[in-house]
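User: quick one - fold this with pyridoxal-5'-phosphate bound?
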Amino acid sequence: METLVKRTIQIAQPSTGAAEWQAVKEPIMSGWLTSGPKVRAFEKNFAEMHQVKRACAVTSCTTALHLALAALDIKPGDEVLVPAFTWVATANAVLYCGATPVFVDVDPVTFNMDPSDIAHRITEKTKAIIPVHLFGLCADMDAIKNAAPGLYIIEDAACAAGAIYKEVYAGGLGDFGCFSFHPRKSVTTGEGGMVTTNNNDYGDKLECLRNHGASVSEEVRHHGPRPYLLADFDVMGFNYRMTDLQGAMGIVQLSKLDQFIGERAKWAKFYERELDEVEWLRTPQEPEGYRHGWQSYACFVDETKAPFSRNKIMEILQEKGVSTRPGTHAVHMLGFYANKYNLKPEDYPGAQAANDYSMAIPLHNLMTKEDYEYVVAAIKSIA
Ligand SMILES: Cc1ncc(COP(=O)(O)O)c(C=O)c1O
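Assistant: Sure. Structure tokens for the protein plus pyridoxal-5'-phosphate:
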């Protein structure tokens, strides 16, 4: 390690360039900037790739989750199950509806919802469950469905574009799938999100609710026989419309998704092989029958074997130029949720362990072979 020249390696970096630049010029030149032909094409391509009937583009995965919950008419008095280890947005979206998020523990090996912790959390108020496909690995949907019969299922697939569970793409495993195009995700539109569904009635509802509850979209109205008349508004909706600039960028990014995942999968294997000898680090796995989306490469630091604490190891790696992050956070340990529901860290031991010991290491499509070798050398030098 000492002989290697220091490098600076980011935890994640978007892969954007000339093709995206060319694509966003089109709506700028045409003047159709809000949701229009580019968003429609992006939705069509996304639905085809994920083998679902409908895809509805929105402004983020957070608004995607809110829209899906709103389409199910989740309201005050309802309870919705969410994993305790996820990005805070999963739980926040439930609160946006005035409903109550009820946390379920996670398995600290997969970092996903633990199906054995579901049944006893269900009450007569429970309406829906939001399994998260964290870091691109699909949750164990068969076990979750068995444990939560009759509940609506909204997949939080923020990290899981292109991921597969037993031959079914993420986004087609429940009633709705919600995706993120934040720059830390495998494909990005700057900010942005998508809701997928195989139910055409839900699809119509999503399109209406994302556009203030309007009975027709601006594009349809403008190009229809009576563009001078405003739409009807029979329900209260939101402005969660994606712009056509984002749609244009999304089309280009999506066309690279398989290539991005393929490259990431190759380097994930490299990490797994090279880091096998580091006994204090558990690397993530891709179980049989799954296609991991590899949005992040989240490891687990076993502090009983490690020379230092997880946080100290992260500090050492930062000094060596290697960015790391905790995988994500345990939402029940965040001040707002801990105070609101009087929750203690140990109430969800799996999520607490994931919060305290997970460590994501760099994995993205701008990294070179030398970058990956440097990360491995930096980790191995910690003793
Ligand atoms: C699991 C999960 N859900 C939801 C979100 C929210 O996504 P967005 O930033 O697009 O609102 C994120 C973002 O990181 C996430 O990781």
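One thing worth noting: The chain has 13 helices and 13 strands.
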